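for the writeup, i need someone to sanity check this before i put it in the appendix. the sequnce is what the collaborator sent (i think, or maybe the updated version? ugh). structure was predicted straight from it, no edits. if anything looks off just tell me and ill rerun, i have time this weekend
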Amino acid sequence: MIFFDFGNSSVKVVDYNNDTFSFRQTFFYDNEFENNISLWLIGHEKPDCVYISTVKPNVSDRVELLLKNDGIENVVILNQDKDKIIDIGVDVPERVGLDRLLAAKASSIVVGESIVIDIGSAITIDYVDNSGVFQGGAILPGRFLWHKALQDNACQLPFVSLSQKGRNYVIGKNTEDAIASGSFFGVLGAINNIVAEMTKQISANIPILITGGDYNCFKHKFRFQYNFDSDLVFKGMAFIAKRRMG
């Protein structure tokens, strides 16, 4: 089977067979997005089932149609109300992103009570208690949204590529490097501080799992112990797929 994880800026795709993930692929939301998906499907063995997790239903709906036009009839859109991914202890459960719930479920299975950090376009830092209940957390902009906000709201500032240096030089010598420095050290500091406050409230020894596409930018820079798992959301999807199949 194939899993699709539609995030804010891209969709990640993976094959799942015999408890193993393989053939990972990432497609960004550009003008060639749907064409690239179609080309990938042509060169790929037709799956018996596709599972979709999405925070962008307007995009995933188009891909669902594309999949069915390719002859893949068994397409499952995961849904908290229907699938009961995880018990939720927040004020408005229906507003929690599916990716947060799937990562939290996987973390609760892998390590139990934990803090789960997903570093992408947006960053989420969530807490799963020792009963496996998702208790909420913190949401903040990632580097891309930081750069985009400056471009959109400060007329003198350009959009800066995420590849711009700034990770080692906090004092930028030009506008681009100053923005890159601000976003890198700002996001890093925010994550470190939020985790510090959470561990004060919960436990200094609580396990911490990190996932997300922008993790590599920050690895080895955090001031806390953690484990990285690139497949955390997919592991949550695998749990639901197994439960659905009985």
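Residues 2-77 form a domain with the Nucleotidyltransferase; domain 5 fold (CATH 3.30.420.40). Residues 29 and 99 are 18 Å apart (CA to CA).
thx in advance!!
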